[in-house]
């Protein structure tokens, strides 16, 4: 049809431009490759870290610059700053072929302006603001000479003992996949070559978050079906979003270290998924295959890694030391090296570095991006939206909740606890400290002072340290509380207690903090507890005895302002937990989309022959998707457009939500689906959709979800992804504990 052809013409035309560019770059890559010696090719696969920031075990080894000058280094990490990168790039320009260096950095949640840790951002369930957070991080990083960020971390994690839960998007595959896409788009912006875009890196491929015991770097072992159903989709989403690179992971998976896994890197990523970007190892993970007992020595490690598809060697020096001999002994075909080098050179061409190696190392642009006020405003908005209100019950004294603080008459507020005046902790792990942090990062104290305009109605007592057994500060805390109308206590972990190599077996508040909270409650004053951490913690006494509890994660540069915005009601909290909060470490792994088992636990029976603990309730302390508001959201009955759908069809689920509270607020309306009976046991429910809506007081709105086969499909035994006819249940509500459910049938073809 003429019209459709005409419509198609521009698309074909633009596609041909894109293809033309790609074909043009491939031709350039091949022309450079043809000039390279074997040593120069291997050099492109060698990544070193500068010594000035260590994010792994540094091997100080003298003058790395000479290796750059000889064309023996292809990329550098932990080398940032327009001036510093320009000077190292100038050394690379002294090499025979003048192939520019790539500069990489862990820009995980901001660079100059620090945003909330990624797990906190995930609690916002706001994909556009999460994308903007990554966008701003890219703008600042790219202005400081960085070409490549080792983010987003897209590891699904169901175990809060694992310190790196702070770095991802939590336990849910559906939410994690959407957030992976948003972050890749944010980092890469309009595409590589733009001066404010950086290469993103989906990591850690794969299943690093499934480490046994929640112990970092530990073994992972699972069925291929679980791997495909739970852990791979966020990586596939990143690949589909055009992520420029992948990073493999430290863990062994099903008996093979991910770094040496051909299944992951060749069969799946570069094969089925047709990924044409590059794969970088994690820090030293190639050499660590010896520790795994998978490689006999560095030669064996280099051979297994390059053969399996790990293109770049980060800091194990295996490729630099072993690849040339492996080629000469014909144990590795040079075509394997050529493929890896092509992937590296292609990115350098796409970034425009062959045209101008210094284009990202521009001190004027660095200065202009360095203190952009709009970045801080965005960080404050992201932080507010990441805060989760866990409890806000009415108290007898005022017959309403303490929050927002305007509810409580009397102005004197006692700020108590070791985190009230914390500065650097607010940035959390994987952040950068700058000389002016003490005046730039907004502590809780600063934020409250900013909000009130002065400190005349504020008092402060640290009460205790974050760790240790000293309670000598309690007396001053009690005094401050008694002289005030309201007590706000800020407790939690240190900013570095969650992160890499930070697994904890005990998730309670460290030190004497819980005791401090008890002392404050004992004064009889209205108490609000703020908990800052990079992971779900266990705080049962507080949960049961403190009427107002706010989870404030680590919120970055604007932390104090964002918390004050919520405490005073200038922002009505809307965050929803991206991870299940356990009552005890003994429940872990605990996650919402579990299987029912043959003897499911039911609250309404004293039958002991059910899947339960004899010493603890089965339910989590707070479920996935949970979070309160100053508003009150009520859900009507779910209405389906039909009671069955045919294959290839769809069904619409509608529900009306009403804000029966007195505050305007946002609610994340969540859609969960259960496949009641299938050829494999299916989770009791799975998140398959959500909409974040804003309702004025008294306002009602009908929300509609369209359910298609895609929402019903799952990986079969043979890994085909398909839906099976049968009964399904739909639940819609404000958390994964939504009770409002209704059934429909998927009819056979
Ligand atoms: C670390 C981390 C990885 C990071 C890399 C470079 O060990 O596992 O996420 O990107 O090394 O810092």
Account of the protein in words:
Helix content is 32%, strand content 18%. It has 749 residues and is α/β, with parallel strands linked by helices. Among the domains are: 139 residues, no CATH class; 217 residues, 3-Layer(aba) Sandwich (Rossmann fold), CATH 3.40.50; 115 residues, Immunoglobulins (Immunoglobulin-like), CATH 2.60.40.10. The strands form 8 sheets. Strands 11-18-17-16-14-15 form a 6-stranded mixed sheet, with helices on both faces. It has a 5-stranded parallel sheet with strand order 4-3-2-1-10. Strand 16, helix 20 and strand 17 form a beta-alpha-beta unit. The N terminus is likely disordered. Alpha-D-glucopyranose binds next to loops.
| Oligomer status | single chain
SS-based class: alpha/beta
Helix content: 25-40%
What is the CATH homology-level superfamily of the domain at 371-587? Glycoside hydrolase family 3 C-terminal domain
Bound molecules: alpha-D-glucopyranose
Output mean pLDDT: 95
Spans where pLDDT lies below 50 across 5 or more residues:
1-12
Question: Which SSEs are present, and which pair or pack?
Answer:
Layout: H1 2-35, H2 38-44, E1 46-49, H3 64-69, E2 75-77, H4 82-92, E3 102-105, H5 118-122, H6 127-142, E4 148-149, H7 173-188, E5 201-205, H8 224-231, H9 233-240, E6 245-248, E7 252-253, E8 256-257, H10 262-272, E9 278-280, H11 289-292, H12 298-308, E10 313-314, H13 318-328, H14 334-350, H15 363-370, H16 373-386, E11 388-392, E12 394-395, E13 400-401, E14 413-416, H17 437-440, H18 444-452, E15 458-461, H19 474-482, E16 486-492, H20 513-522, E17 527-532, H21 540-545, E18 548-551, H22 559-567, E19 633-635, E20 639-640, E21 644-646, E22 650-659, E23 665-675, E24 686-695, E25 700-708, H23 709-712, E26 714-715, E27 721-722, E28 726-733, E29 741-747
Parallel strand pairs: 1-2, 1-10, 2-3, 3-4, 5-6, 6-9, 14-15, 14-16, 16-17, 17-18, 21-29
Antiparallel strand pairs: 7-8, 11-18, 12-13, 19-22, 20-22, 22-25, 23-24, 23-28, 26-27, 28-29
The chain binds alpha-D-glucopyranose (GLC).
Residues 55-56, 77, 106, 150, 203, 282-283, 500 line the site of alpha-D-glucopyranose.
